[in-house]
Structure formats: C-alpha cells, structure tokens
Design a protein that fits this description.
The structure is a homotetramer.
Chain A: E1 4-9, H1 14-24, E2 29-35, E3 43-46, E4 49-52, E5 66-69, H2 76-85, E6 89-92, H3 114-117, E7 126-128, H4 132-146, E8 155-162, H5 177-180, E9 185-186, H6 195-205, E10 212-219, E11 226-233, H7 243-249, E12 255-257, H8 264-267, E13 273-279, E14 287-294, H9 298-312
Parallel strand pairs in A: 1-2, 1-5, 5-6, 6-7, 8-10, 12-13
Antiparallel strand pairs in A: 3-4, 8-11, 9-10, 11-14, 13-14
C-alpha cells in the first residue's frame, strides 16, 4: 500500500517524539523527515525504528503532503508560513493559530477538536491542534453548553492536573526529578493560564457565551496524563446525568463515557478522552461533577494531530491510533 | 528533666508510627507503650530508637498520663472509653468523637483544631483530633467564615489531593505501588466523602451556617501531603486579599501565609499549614482561590495530636514539633 | 482471517493481564476465555476491549488450542495436567516445569527461552516459559558460555533489579506505594533466590557446567522492567567484545546488542532483550560487564509466552508482539 | 550558649542546601553566610528559617571559623585557597583534595571518613570530605581490609545505585522527572567512574593494596539515598560473619550493623551508614555479600561534613546530626 509522506518540525520534544512514534507505526503514513535544530544529526530510537534529526531549515518540506509543527509557541507561526509557501498543508500543535491567540488574527485555521469540528477539517490548509487542557475540558463540557443547561452566568470551576511532559522537554530546574517527585502544586493560580483565552473562545462558540471558567492547573509527579475535575452549576438535575453525554457523542470512537470516575491509567498511551458525570450531593445549587481524563501527549497533542491529519487526508479517522 | 509518660494505641499504622517518632524525640514526653495487635511482640525502629509493640489489650494504660488512640474509626471509641475508665486523658485521632460523627452524640469532646479551639483544650478529658482534609480546609477558610465574607448561600468548591498514607497502612490492591505510580484519580466523587459532615459542622460553628461545601478528593502518587485548592465566591474583593489571614492568625507558629502558592514540598515533615490567597481574574463573580498545604501525617494527624497534648499537659505548644 | 482460540488461566495478575492485552491485539489469536477465581464475573478493560473473568474451574479448556497458565507456582502444575487431559497444549508461565524445579521431575517440558531453544518448541505439549530474571541473564551470557570463554571455575556476579510487578499482584504491605516509593533494597541476599536453580541448570546445559552464579536481586521503585548488571571473569579480552554477541544472535528480531548500556526505558512495553558489553578497566583479571534489560512482563513473561505460542502454532514468530 | 559562626560556599546545590538546614538547627553552630552565585540576592526557606544567598565573591569569609565548600569539582580548590589565605579552616565537599585526585598533589588534606580517620582531623586546616559512593563502600569493607581477610589479588565487585541528587542540582535533560521516573540504568560502565581512584587509594591505605575494585554505579528513580551491593571473595568463612564488623565499629554512633539487608528507607535523612553481611550460598569460592546504605546528602555529604566540623571544632561529634 502506498503511504503518504508527512514530516515533523520540532521532533525532539515530547509531542514531537510521540508524533514520530505514531507515524512510523501508521499503516497509511510514512515519515519524510523529522527536524530538531539542537539535535541535528543525532540518531534516536523511536519504538523499533531509528531516525536521524535534520535541522529545521534543512527539512525538505516539499517532500511531505502534511507537515506537523510541534515547535514552541511563537516560533511555529513562521514555519507554518514557510510550509504554506511551498503548498504543504499543516497541522500546527502550537497555540499560534488557536482561538484566543493574538497571533491568529490574520490567518483563519479551523480548531482541530476533531469530534466537534470535524466538518471544517477536510478542506483546510492549516489545522490549529487544540491545547491539552482545552481538549480535556471542552470535550467534557460541550454537551452541557450545546444544550444550554449551564446555570446562566455561572462559573464552571476546573481544577486540573497534568503530568510533567505537559511542560515540554526543557531543562528547567523545577522539572528535575528530585524537585518533582513527592511534590504537587498549583501554578498559574488566579485564573491566569494562557489556555483560558482558548477555552473561553471555544466555550462561547459552543453555546456558553455567558459562562465563566475558573481554571487552576496543577503539576503532578507523573510523566503523562491530564485529569480535570470540573464542577458545573446547572439549571436542574435529570434522572440519568450521563445520558446527555452518551447521546451527544453516540459512537465516537475516541470518547468514552464511564460509569466510574476515570483515572490517568485508563487513558495513558491511548487517543481517547474518558469522562464521568456525577451529581453533587449535599449542596443547594444543582451541580454536576465531571471528571475528564486524557493522555496529554496523545488525545492532548500527537494523537489528536494524527486524527486531524487522517481526516484532512481522507484516511480512516482511527487509522494508526491506539484506542 | 522529668518526662511525662504517654502511650499510643494503634502504633503500627502511618499516623501511629509518626506519633511514636515524635514522642521519642519530644523533650517533655516519654513513650510508655505502643500497641499494635497484629504486630504484637514485633521490634521496630523509630528514628534512632527501637521499640516493641504490645497487644492493645495488654497496654498498661494507667502508666500514661495521656493516651493517643490511632485506631480505626469505630474501634477507637471503645478504647477511649477503657482509657477514661482508668482516668487517663485521651487524644483520639479517629473520627469517632468529631463533629458530625454519629458516634459522638453522647460524649462531648472538644474538636482539636488547635489554632481555632485552643481555649477548650486544657480542661478536656478527650480531644477529637481533626481529620487531615478538614484541617487543611478549615484553617484555610476560617478567616472568611469568621468575618462573614463568603457570598451568602454560595458553594465553596474544594478540589483536594492526598498522598497514599492518607488511606492508612492497609494492604489494599489499589494502593500497591504498581497501581498508584503514574496514576491520579478522584474518589468519593459526588460530595460523598465522610469528612464532609465534619467540615460542614465546623464550618457552621465558625460562622458559615449558610455555606455549602463541595469537596472532591483525589489520590496522589506521593507518600504524604495534602494540597487543597479552594475557590470561594465572596461578597467583594479587598486590595490585599491575604491581609485578613495575616491579621486573623497573627503570630501562630504553625500557620504560614505565603506569597506564592504552597507545594507539598513546603510542608512535608513539618507541623504547619501553609496557605496562599489569590484573586480570580476573568470571572464576573468576585472569587478567591485559596491553596492550602499540610503534611497529612503531621499537622493532619500526629503533629496536631502532639500539639493538642502539649496544650492539654501545659507544655509549650511548639514542644517537640518540627516547624 | 481465521484466528486461533487461546485461553488464559490466572488472568488477573500482572502477567495474566498483559497476556490478555497481547492476545486481544494479536492478528492470529483470539481470546477464548480468561479465568480469575477471586474476580470471577468481574468485567475489566484490556486496552480498548472489555472481558469478563470466569472461574478457573469453569474455563472451557477444550475451546482453546493453546492455554497459557499464569497461576501461582505450585498451583499451575495441576491445571497444566487438567488441560493436557483434554488434549490442549500449554504454555506455562509458572516455575513448575522449569529446569531445577522439584516438580519438574516427571514431565519433560522444553524450556521456552525461544532464541536458544527454538527447535524444541514446535512438537511440544507443554512449554516451560522462563522466569523473568533468568531470561534477562541467560540470554546475556549464553554467547560466552557457548564459546567456553568464561574463566574456568569462576563466579559470574549478577546484581539485578526488578520493578514491583515482578512480585505479582498481591496485596502485601511491603508492596504498598508508600513503602516502595523513594526506597530501594536487595532481597534474597546470600544467593538464595529460587531462580538460581533454574539459572544454574540452564547455564550448565549451555556450556557452563563449571561456572558459579552469584545473584542478588533488588526491588526497584518502578512498575516494570528488569536491569541485570553482570560481571564475568573471562579467559582473555578480544578487541571488539560485542562482536561475539552480534555473531551469536545474528538477525534475532527480539535481541538488541547496544553500543550504550541499555536502560529500562529502552525495553519497557517491548518484547526484547537489550544487551551491552563493556571491558572492565583498572582490574587485573580480564572481566566483561554485561548490562541486560528486559520488560519483566513482556520478554520476561507474557511476551515470550506469546512468542513461544507463535512457534508452537506455526505462526510468524513476531506476530502480535511489540518490537 | 555561644554559637560558632560557619559559612557555606555553594549553598544552592543539594548538598549546600542540606548543609544550611543542618547548620540552622545545630545547637553549636550559626550560619554566617550562604553563597550561591546564580541565585545571589534570592531568599529561600531552609526548614522554618529563611536566608538570602550572597555572591560567592561577596561572602565574608573572615566572619566564619569554618567554611564548608560545596562548589563544583575543580572550582572548589581555588576558593579553599582564598579561605585559607584569610586563615579560615575548611571542610571541602568537592573531590579536589581527596586521595587520587590530580589536584590534591600539592596540599595535603586529611580524608574525612570520620570513623576511620578521626585522629587526623582536629589539627587540620582542610578536611577533604569523602565522596558519597566511597563513604558507603569504604566503611563497609574497611573491617575486611584491616584484617587482611580478602582473598589476595581478588576483585571486590560493587554494584551501587544512587538517587538523582547524587548528580547535583543541574538542569540536565536526562535528570528531568519525565526521563527518570520508571527508569533505571547503569552509568560509567567499564569501571570508569571518577570515584574509583579515590576508593583505590583509600583501600590501599586501609590494607588492601593488592585488591581490585570493580564498581558499576546506577541511577535510581529516587531523590536521595545510596545502596551498594558488595561481593567480596574472602580467604575463609567464619561462623558469624557480622562479628568482625561489630567488633571493628564498637559503639560508633553513626554505624549500624543490621541483621537484615538495609534499605534506603532505613537511612534517608539520617547521618548513618547501615551495613549487613551475608555468606553467599551455592558458590565454590567463599564470598561475602555486604549491603551498605547511606543517605548520599547526609552521611555521604552534608552530614559527614558537619560531623567533621564537629571534630575539628572540639564539639561533641554527634551534635546537630540526626542519628
């Protein structure tokens, strides 16, 4: 079978490495190049195969039908432009083209939250691959927003925790093993995280223009995985709170509505979001507690990027993705 | 210097071992006995000293001036009774005599949240040592409750995470290393945790009769420590949100009001609660985000128990406690 | 394509779960049943599929062409007999039929260290799947033994470390997260481990009748993986010490001779052994240091079991196995 | 009580921070300054106290009676010279003045393995504080060397593992949490570690001029602790192999001869070495297996440095040290 050549810019970070691993095992894609400026010329093992990084400026962009850009926020936009100039389509894993990003003003790129935006993807030149936290949170609350069930004017409270690969492969002292092990802490406290603009913009588009989001992320002593604990004041309870989610997502292959609250273990190394819905007892205001779990490097980054590329290229959407 | 003899019932669990460690290094206390039924006769090292467990029924209660009971909930009440029958005062680490516990109806025991209840302790026969989560949460919100600053009728949202010693030293398969490492999950989802009654009862007493608490605990892949992320809708913001806490707690030796959100690392192996206060940006409803961290085995159990015993016995409150 | 039905007895332990995961993703095998006495009737997720455990005595053995027994040592032999009585072939993951096991005296089962014993497998009724430590160690030293290069009468020193899944899925207090995290220790110190008889017997068969093995295992705070550090006094050094290993193993798909010492990360979730060979500087006696790494649940248990079943059933040896 | 002022150069690394923590809690020492070039001016919490780093060149050396240098190897020697020029005595934690170090040729500094070299310390101007691995290993084998019980010409085989703080507080990508967790690997394989010269030199001095040491260190996914597994071919076995160690070390407060093999948990945060001795079964050559455990930051660095300073200053040797 003919395989479609694709390339990865920024292949030495955690998302980039995960992308290379998925592509080399994908039945319909082949890896045309993998770039990493600082490790140019370095040979690395990805699963059972080996590859050699090229410098980003030496990447043969025109050899690929789709390029994945897993470069730092801010740097990515320029390389997306370069790729577009040679006519290559792009799945961009940075924040540069996402809703709410200041850089996104001039070029319109569909937001690749595949399950909710699927119809916009096939004809696009650039896909803005969602952030990891927004993926976990927006897929979890979309049914409530879509049905206008959130209490008008209410605040959706999100306490989320991410494994350290969410901070990228950067040699920061605070990410050293001896600093992270046996620790746990909140960061960007005060509703200040840069993902908030992305979440607010998409929330409004999904039907929650009136809704506030209060988001507190935490750093977990694990390598990968995001768990979001979301409390939503709603207008009124139904008998079976999860029924709405099952109806909304139907047979989506990468969305699991679970009876029990999901744990990271349920989703790590899989391209799924797993969600549970519970009623809050002992409070006057009807409130739902939604627990949402993803692997930040899979459904939260590389997996969803391949899912988007599959749709873009007319391949089967599940192709090459571990469910 | 004369040391006051004290005993520990239930000394082989995590809190019990921590108690033995504190007592053997305490300048004013000596360990009269340490009981552990299943390990009776077993010799264990506690810091640089060694001790031998006795069966609980063989513990020479009358040799102690104060007995710490670190027995399972439900079992403890009976042994507290036995100790009272021989005239020994008790610091009970179980839930049996805490506010909201069904067993507590007949006997009144002051709630040993030392900083808030100090005056009730010296004359008491039994102290109900607070739960670990309630300690972290109640000390964090007490200033707001006391000043009636919480939005009337509002829900205080608490997302908290605890190290696995919070579940006790029990050989449950779900607490095995290979099950917990690289995982993170919520439990008692739906505002169902047994600590909720304790928190609601004390919250009401502290001035929050109208306030709901929505509490979602999580299991962290760390041995010890609790971090609580608390969001509180308030009537209105002040310029310096932390000022109230600094004023309320003054020179309390075991309460730290921090500029930066605390992490477990800041508090582990110390008998302190460390709290930060932040205003939530980007939400219509004025809301504070309080991050509170304790060591569940120290300020959340054994440390606070020794703190209470110090007050009970007229010793210096900080004696033998790592600040 | 027709899939060959196979069954798993003892499917709830770590090796059993790994087996079920491999079988459900195997292109040539289907899972006829999975037994687990204590969890009978329980529904579990294995990757993206779900299965229900049956009691071991209710397992429809005759529905399977091959049965994998992942039962405790001692228990396994009886169920192997039961399976043989209905004519089913068995890959036994216990120690019951391995060389050096006292139970193995009556029934002869080929030792399934596939790379070294491949020719004996196709016609066998029972395969004794090797232990995890022996797999890592014997594959590493086999070339030296085969070529008679070990110093006559010498002791091969093995210091090895295993993740906690090596101890099985048993609720022992010493395997609790809070006991294992941040710890490391040796066990079975004094060359007392039950794997020693297995290793000595195979070592003799491979050409090392005169060689002693001194084996000290350690418990690592990781879930999976074995690393063995093996020092071998040899007759004399060659220029390229790894050349022998490359020649001996040729194109074996599951053996990797590495330039750099392997780490657990290189092998986890893969059915490979990865080995490096180094000369010891600064010692009078010519000595090689061999570092050998496997995933104890894959090449050390379930993966090698499937590899053996592939050979037994005439399937491609690599089928369904992550290299 | 008057406290003796001491200073720390290089106070922001792991050993430096541990030193500051010990000094601020020491009954006989006070911290005159703590230097850290890159963090100059930064305020940090050490236990319950806070301190501000000064630049190393701004450190008021003459305000201290003893300076601890916890600077990188190579850098330290220069600052030791500067301190000596103003007449301050030095405990140097670097390798610069240790036996076997090329830099040590001109200045003679006693090797501060306190239990073995105690008499040389009081009059010294500079103490070369031992490396962490050498501390664990040399204290474990010293009794055998001293009594000439090692098989002449034999190789002592050491497989040792260290927590990541042993690599220092440096932002290396390979020390990131996500790289270390769930991993384990050997390094400096081939008997190449720079500690080997130190160990060989001291081994010779202790009576083992003829003995080789083959040392393979490993990186553990823990923050702190060293475990060394040492196999020693000996002339002949005695009935009670540990008797020699008990006799040799008598009442040393910081040496523990254990019945069971020690684990990291037994020694972490304590200034002790804990050792077990076992006979190897199933080998022709009489061989002992010695397991030795220390906390690399305490007995392996800061603790032993304070122990040496205590001796140097005529304080009680155990003063300020957690046993």
């Amino acid at each position: 079978m003919h395989k479609i050549p694709v390339g990865v810019l920024g292949a030495s970070g955690y998302a980039g490495r995960e992308l290379c691993g998925l592509i080399t095992q994908h039945p319909g894609l082949s890896l045309a190049f993998a770039s990493a400026n600082e490790q140019r010329g370095q040979r690395v093992r990805v699963g059972a195969t080996e590859l050699t990084y090229v410098a980003t400026e030496d990447a043969p962009l025109d050899k690929a039908e789709v390029v994945f850009t897993a470069l730092p926020h801010g740097t990515s936009a320029r390389w997306v432009g370069t790729a577009r100039n040679v006519g290559v389509r792009v799945v961009d894993l940075s924040a540069d083209f996402r809703p709410g990003a200041s850089e996104s003003s001039m070029i319109k790129a569909p937001y690749g939250l595949t399950e909710l935006m699927r119809s916009r993807i096939p004809g696009a030149d650039i896909i803005a691959n969602p952030g990891c936290y927004p993926t976990a949170i927006l897929l979890a609350i979309a049914p409530l927003l879509s049905e206008q069930l959130v209490l008008p004017g209410a605040t959706i409270n999100v306490s989320a925790a991410s494994g350290v690969t969410g901070a990228g492969y950067s040699a920061r002292p605070d990410l050293l093993f001896a600093e992270v092990v046996e620790d746990f802490k909140a960061y960007a406290v005060g509703n200040q995280h840069r993902h908030i603009a992305e979440m607010r913009a998409v929330t409004a588009e999904l039907g929650g223009a009136d809704v506030d989001i209060l988001f507190t992320p935490h750093l977990l002593p694990v390598a990968r995985g995001i768990l979001a604990t979301i409390t939503v004041p709603i207008k009124q309870h139904s008998d079976d709170p999860a029924a709405l989610w099952r109806r909304f997502y139907g047979n989506e292959p990468f969305v699991e509505i679970a009876d029990q609250p999901p744990s990271l273990r349920d989703v790590v190394r899989r391209n799924v979001v797993r969600v549970s819905i519970s009623k809050a007892a002992n409070v006057k205001q009807p409130t739902l507690i939604i627990i949402s779990a993803i692997d930040n490097l899979m459904k939260g980054a590389a997996g969803q990027a391949v899912q988007n590329a599959n749709v873009l290229l007319g391949l089967e959407e599940q192709s090459g993705l571990p469910a």
